[in-house]
Amino acid sequence: MGEDRIRIAVAAFDGVTPLDAVGPLDVLARLPAVTVVLASRGGRPVRAEFGLELGPGAALEEVAADVLCVPGGPGVNRFLADAAAVDLLARIGGQARWVASVCTGALLLGAAGLLRGYRATTHWLSLDLLPVVEAIPVEERVVVDRNRITSAGVTAGIDLALRLAAELSGVEAARRVGLLVEYDPAPPFGAGSTRTAGPGEAAALREERTALQLERRRLLAAAAERFGPAPG
Amino acid sequence: MGEDRIRIAVAAFDGVTPLDAVGPLDVLARLPAVTVVLASRGGRPVRAEFGLELGPGAALEEVAADVLCVPGGPGVNRFLADAAAVDLLARIGGQARWVASVCTGALLLGAAGLLRGYRATTHWLSLDLLPVVEAIPVEERVVVDRNRITSAGVTAGIDLALRLAAELSGVEAARRVGLLVEYDPAPPFGAGSTRTAGPGEAAALREERTALQLERRRLLAAAAERFGPAPG
User: Fold this and answer.
1) A37, B59, B103, B121: which could join B72 in a potential S-S bond, CB 3.0 to 4.6 Å?
2) Residue range B80-111, pLDDT digits in tens
3) Structural domain contains residue A14
4) Is the pLDDT of residue A1 over 70?
5) What is the mean pLDDT of chain A?
6) In this prediction, what percent of chain B has a pLDDT beyond 90?
7) Rg for chain B (alpha carbons), in Å?
8) Which contacts of B114-117 are long-range, i.e. CB under 8 A and separated by 24 or more positions?
9) Residue B157's domain spans which residues?
10) How confident is the model at residue A230 (pLDDT cuts 50, 70, 90)?
11) What is the per-residue pLDDT for B3?
12) Considering only CB atoms, which chain A residues are within 8 Å of B174?
C-alpha cells in the first residue's frame, strides 16, 4: 500500500466493549485510501467483553498511525493500571493527526495526558471522571476540540466515526459510508440517554457501578500524578 | 448456567460484516439471563470483512439456540454456495423460538427456507433479491412477522436487537440496555437511507455492486430449487 494511505489504529485490550471498537472500525474501513488495523499489546488476540475474541492485525508497540481511536469497556480499569500500556497510547496519540475515543476510551486518552485542557466526552456514567485527568467534560454525543474527537457511550462511536470520516475524506465520502451502513437509526424505546431515560433508570445503573467507578477515579488520579507541568 | 437462560447464537463466517454481528451481540448480551455465543462452522475463528478476526465460542454444527441471529456481509455469497452450511441454519432456525437477521443475513435465512411466505427486509442493495427465496420484501428498518425479525443494513442490527430485547425480556430491560449503550443516535449527515441520500449516491453504489448482486441472485435461485412444496 502506498504511503499516502491514511493509517487508522483502533486499540484493543482485554475487556474492551466489542461495539466500541467495531463500530468505528466498520465505518472508517469503508473510506477510500484508508487502512484500519486493530492493535493490541504485543499483537495478541484480546478477550473482549461478553467472551468475544478479537484478533488484532498489529502490535501497539509498533504502530504508527495518522488516527488513533481508543474504545472503552470494563477492561479500561486493568489498562489504566498498566503504566507502560498507557505510555504507548501517549506515544501513538502524540504523533497522530487525529486522536479519537469512544465511550470510556476517553479515560485512557486522559490517563495518557492526551486530553489535558481539551473539551471531551465519554460514557455518561464516567463523565464526572474527566476532570481528574484535566479534561473539560461536555455532555454531547460527539465532541471535537482541535484534533481531539471523543464520543459518548458505545453506539456513539458510529456518529463519531462518520464525523471523523468527513474530516479525513470529505462529507461526500462520509455520506457514501452512511448509506452503505444504512445509518438511519430508529431507536424503538427512546431511552438511550439520561435526558430521555427515567431518573430511576439512570440511578439504578449508577448504583450498580459504584465500585468500578471508584476504582477508576483512583486509577486516573494515580495516572495524573505522573503528568508533567500543565501543557500550553 | 441454568436451563432457564435464553441461548442466543450469532452466526459468523468468513467475510461477515463485523458490525452486523457485533451490534446485536453487544446489545443482547446485556440482557439478564441471556447467554450469547458467536457460532461458526467447526467453531473456527473467522476472518471478517476488513481483516478483523473473530473468535467464536461455539460450532454451528452443535448449537441449539432459542434465538438464531444471522448477520450479513460480502461473505454471504460464499456461504450460499455451501449447501451444508445453509442446512445448518435451517436446522437451528427451525428449532429456535426467534429467527433474526441483520443486513444480508436475510439472504442466508432465505436460502435456508426460513423466510418463505414471511415479510422481511435486508440491506437496501439486496431488497429485490428476497422474492427469489419466496420472502415478501418490506422497505422498513426492522420487520417483524410472527417469529421472524429482520433488519436493514449493518447499523440496523442495533435497532433490531433492542426490539428483540423487548420481546425476550420486556421493554424495561430493553430500555436499560439502550441507556447502557447510549443509543441516542445523531447521524451527522443524514444520508443513511435511500430516502435521504441523493439519487446519484445510491445509483453509484448499485453500479459498483452489480457483479456481486448478480452472483447472489444466481446462488439464491439455486438454493430455492432445493425447497420442498410451499409451506403452510
Assistant:
1) B103
2) 999 999 999 999 999 999 999 999 999 999 99
3) yes
4) no
5) 95
6) 90
7) 17
8) B114/B89, B114/B90, B114/B148, B115/B148, B115/B150, B116/B227, B116/B230, B116/B231, B117/B230, B117/B231, B117/B232
9) 6-224
10) confident
11) 61
12) 188-189
| Residue A57 pLDDT exceeds 90 | no
Distance CA A123, CA A125 (A): 5
- What distance in Å separates the CA atoms of residue B148 and residue B109, rounded to the nearest whole number? 10
ipTM: 0.95
Report the chain B residue with the minimal C-alpha distance to residue A35: B50
Average pLDDT over residues B179-190: 92
- Which triple of cell numbers denotes residue B213? 448482486
Q: Give me the catalytic one of B80, B103, B165, B223.
A: B103
Question: What percent of chain A has a predicted confidence (pLDDT) above 70?
Answer: 98
Distance CA B16, CA B14 (A): 6
Assess if residue A87 is contained within a domain.
yes
Q: Are B112 and B79 in contact (CB under 8 A)?
A: no
Q: How confident is the model at residue B232 (pLDDT cuts 50, 70, 90)?
A: low
Question: Residue A153: which of B25, B55, B181 has the nearest Cβ?
Answer: B181
Of B162, B184, B188, the CB nearest to A188: B162
Which residue from A166, A164, A124, A126 is spatially nearest to A141, judged by alpha carbons?
Answer: A124
In-domain check, residue A232? no
- The residue of chain B with its CA nearest to that of A73 is B181
Mean pLDDT check: name the lowest of A102-111, B41-50, B198-207.
B198-207
CA distance A134 to chain B (A): 24
Pairing of strands A53-55, A46-47: antiparallel
Q: What DSSP string describes B67-121? A: EEEE--STTHHHHHT-HHHHHHHHHHHHH-SEEEE-TTHHHHHHHTTTTTT-EE-
Domains in chain B, number: 1
- Which CATH number characterizes residue B51's domain? 3.40.50.880
Tell me if A231 is assigned to some domain. no
Q: How far does the CA of residue A160 sit from the closest CA of chain B (Å)?
A: 9
Residue A103 is a catalytic residue: yes
